[in-house]
Amino acid sequence: MATDLEIARAATLRPIREIAEKAAIPEDALEPYGRYKAKVSLDFVNAQKGRPDGALVLVTGINPTAAGEGKTTTTVGLGDALNSLGTRAMIALREPSLGPCFGVKGGATGGGHAQVLPMEEINLHFTGDFHAITAANNLLAAMVDNHLYWGNELGLDARRIVWRRAVDMNDRALRSINAALGGVPNGFPREDGFDITVASEVMAVFCLAKDLADLQARLGRIIVGYSRDGRAITARDLKADGAMAALLRDALAPNLVQTLEGSPALVHGGPFANIAHGCNSVIATRLALKLADVVVTEAGFGADLGAEKFLDIKCRAAGLAPKACVVVATTRALKLHGGVAKSALGTEDVAAVTRGISNLRRHVQNMQKFGLPVVVALNKFTGDTEAEIAAVREAMRPLGTKVILCTHWADGAAGAADLARAVLELIEGGSAAFEPLYQSHVSLAGKIETVAREIYHAASVAIPPPVAAKLKRFEDAGFGDVPVCIAKTQYSFSADPTLLGAPEGHVLPLRDVRLSAGAGFVVAIAGEIMTMPGLPRHPAAEGIGLDAEGRIEGLF
């Protein structure tokens, strides 16, 4: 069986100008990066604002497992299938992070015959967006320490600096560091640390900005630390916002690529969903909506993370209203949620599937709480049995949710045609009545408790006094109306990655809260989740290299 990389390499890509023509993007609006990828000029993006929007479809999934679910693959397959049926469709995805690519998860361009291309370039340096975001983040960090060195005119308290450095790599050794060691010439020693770039506030700002002016305004609102009397010091106070925006100017233009079957895809921005808000850029999504009748986009990890944040943060900020939602699952993953070991997934076990369906059921019901009609995409593996598939269909029937068997990994668009028809049926049915889960006027603690209760089915939220005091300070400073972005494990509805299925009555333990004033939300860190991941014992990087002809091998 051919690998994803072999399938991608065997494909005949079309010149990017042909893909742009299919999307009604003129050639003079393109800034090519080679033959098969290009940025779309912001002038063209801005010129589309008066056009009507197409229908937005959200693809999400159950809590991820080692068995795999295929959320990105389904997003690509669905987009291809819609185009094959004569619907003008575009795909809007996040850019992959180098951390997971060289860690354990691999890339994020789909798989099999449902991929976005050029696979190696998208998964690695692509158009340099992440490098620009990292540079902007670290420019601000450098200007913070430089300000301390040259007299600290703003009175920034070195003990209360909250801005951290960033690198787009899994590197646990950088989580907590001592900076500016070596004596007077190197500045004032202090504790510091790194986050992975995709967890940084600059990434969130980049993805939520509506245009260049909004980008610079948001960058200026970033809080880097506090004075001794508690006054917030911002990037604008340090006069760093203009230079940061300059570094990000070219990156803010969305990236156009193609699928294996020639569908246009915008791949832009890439915040993590278990730490940040997990959605591609507002600019790319809005452009796609102006150019296509249906836009298929994806939110990271399970629906408890990416989809909730997509709906409560991104849609709220950008004024988006999805028309339908696809929840992706596999019988293999449901067996894992039902307590079966990974080594036993090849054996029929209807009882385990039935137990694991509790996870799928809750995600479907959660999406319905937002007023979205839902269809389940069940990605088929060769070992799946009719009895297992029937169990999933039977369980979804009381929820009024269809279960569509999908084979786009093997068959491309043809394998997702039934899913495309089901999605069009939901859109045309007009039953979507999107509403965020909570209103802006609810307290920050109340918002966290609402998500924990309604989405995670937690009994309560444990908020230590120092964390509660920080939430009050945020509200007193005028940030009580912003949404919350809960950072927790992706593997469970709870903060405990070992609690699979659909746990009830657990406690969500908050460890810290961080104000992202530029992005416009408060991050609530629950359990042991880290904003700088580490590499596994045997990272994927060990299997990646170049062959005798200089081609990349081992990337997945």
From TrEMBL:
The keyword Translocase does not apply. ATP binds at T65, A66, A67, G68, E69, G70, K71, T72. It is an enzyme of class 6 (ligase). Keywords: ATP-binding, Ligase, Nucleotide-binding, One-carbon metabolism. Gene3D superfamilies: Domain 2, N(10)-formyltetrahydrofolate synthetase (3.30.1510.10), Formyltetrahydrofolate synthetase, domain 3 (3.10.410.10), P-loop containing nucleotide triphosphate hydrolases (3.40.50.300). Pathway: One-carbon metabolism; tetrahydrofolate interconversion. GO terms for molecular function: formate-tetrahydrofolate ligase activity. Belongs to the formate--tetrahydrofolate ligase family. This is Formate--tetrahydrofolate ligase. It comes from Pseudoroseomonas ludipueritiae.
